[in-house]
Amino acid sequence: MGNKTLAIIKPDAVRKNLVGQIIAKITEAGFKIKAMKMVRLTKESAGGFYEVHKARPFYNDLVEYMTSGPCVPIALEKENAVEDYRKLIGATDPDQAAPGTIRKLYAANKAENAVHGSDSDENAAIEIAHFFSRKELLENYVD
Ligand code: ADP
Ligand code: MG
Fold first, then answer.
1. pLDDT digits (tens, 9 = 90+) for 42-76
2. Probe ligand 1: pick from 63, 71, 110, max atoms within 8 Å of CB?
3. What is the pTM of this model?
């Protein structure tokens, strides 16, 4: 069981000024912030991040949405991080998300759904490396 995951506060939530409230939910749930930045993704970066969804009909819209404004990637640490964070954010579609979850509270719909969460330990490592260099992770290390 791994202890790291990648969260992203997506552009819709940043536009709605929800960064602070979402971070509060995350830290209240016991996650530790290991690295964080605010960044406007290029089409190349967003397209690469969501490469696994390339064949899906929503891929182009997804890349457009993720490049529509700045987002906030956050490397998180907690025991059982991937599973616990997915539980905290709720289902992809906020209509299906459990009460009290971040997506239930803040997502508009299944496309513009406020936050990202890694789906496995392997992908968490790949996704953290997508946004944070080894040097950044080491220099910013908070114990
Ligand atoms: P999750 O983010 O819950 O892991 P997926 O990996 O299946 O969900 O999809 C990645 C992202 O693509 C979603 O968070 C959402 O922004 C978007 N997305 C997923 N399914 C759809 C859909 N059917 N229509 C539009 N956008 C979608
Ligand atoms: Mg996913």
1. 999 999 999 999 999 999 999 999 999 999 999 99
2. 110
3. 0.97
Domain holding 58, by residue range, is: 4-141
Among residues 46, 76, 116, 124, which one is catalytic? 116
Amino acid at the residue 121: D
What SS3 state is found at 13?
Answer: helix
Count of structural domains, the chain: 1
Q: DSSP class of residue 98? A: P
Which residues sit with their C-beta closer than 6 Å to ligand 1?
53, 58, 62, 92, 110-111, 113, 116, 119
Task: List, for residues 85-134, the tens digit of each pLDDT value.
Answer: 999 999 999 999 999 999 999 999 999 999 999 999 999 999 999 999 99
116 is catalytic: yes
